[in-house]
Amino acid sequence: MRWKCTVAYDGTGFHGWQSQPGGNTIQDVLENRLKNLFGQPIRIHGSGRTDSGVHARGQVFHFDGVWTNLQTDLLNALRSGLPESIQVSAVRKVPNDFHARYSAIGKRYMYWLFEGYAPPMETRYYWSLGRRKVDIERMNAAAACFLGKHDFSAFGAQRGDDFTVNPIKDMRRLEITRRGRRIRIATEASGYLYKMVRSLAGALVDVGIGKLAPDEPEKFLKSGKRNALVVTAPARGLCLEKVFY
Question: Could you list the residue range(s) of the whole structural domain that residue 233 is in?
Fold first, then answer.
């Protein structure tokens, strides 16, 4: 039996998604819970990895295991043994050829900014800009160049096992909106390179505060090479909202 699960988490206190020797990752916590339920080690496969401090509302993973009770019983059993910072929201049986990562056709991320200083209970979910003011019209003008299929190498970062990752991604949505002092960067694409969303957010913020001209991100994109002017925004403002299949 193969099971598809949707999970939300506050990534603040964890060392990212992927299992590590020292533990304290989302994957480690979920696998420990499944081991207790099934009485044997269970390996889970996520749609992708999120870094330390990154959050999720709709991360997806799958695992194989024989469960003879009701599907709702499995969901309730999973939920009951997890910390408050991790919540499995859905579980359903899927065909054996489903794969959380390789079956995905796109993802939606949100990056959250706060113009000023976010309230204490929200600081873990926003990049507080302090005294800096951003012009979202300039940011949206710069963002337009990213729509469509491009080589996003200039906005990615290398990770040990990512040498064969295709840098060509189809950016279907990238828009910046404001509600008071809260600013949202919404993006949907066929996939993302390591630290790509945070790098896009960093560049767009620099456009918004006037540090970069609106046409400079396009020049970076076309160069196909990372340069020091592309900064990586803090992890805490990023949230994986949805995985599309």
Answer: 106-244
Measured between alpha carbons, how far is 186 from 4 in angstroms, rounded to an integer? 25
47: left (phi over 0), alpha (psi -120 to 50) or beta: alpha
Q: Name every residue whose Cβ is closer than 8 Å to that of residue 155 and which is 6 or more positions away in sequence.
A: 193, 196, 199, 200, 203, 220, 221, 226, 230
The residue from 94, 115, 134 where one domain ends is: 94
Give the tens place of pLDDT for each residue, 129-185. 999 999 999 999 999 999 999 999 999 987 665 556 899 999 999 999 999 999 999
Tally the domains of the chain: 2
The torsion region of residue 17 among left (phi > 0), alpha (psi -120 to 50) and beta comes to alpha
Question: Residue 164 to residues 36, 167, 193, 215: CA-CA distances in angstroms?
Answer: 36, 9, 11, 30
pTM score, whole prediction? 0.94
**Residues 90 and 118 occupy one common structural domain:** no
**Residue matched to tokens 């008071």:** 180
**Catalytic residues, which ones?**
51
Q: Give backbone dihedrals phi and psi of 111, rounded to 5 degrees, phi first.
A: -120, 130
Same domain, 76 and 147: no
Residue 99 domain-assigned? no
Helices and strands (H, E) in the chain, number of each type: 5, 10
State the CB neighbour count (10 A cutoff) for residue 233: 22
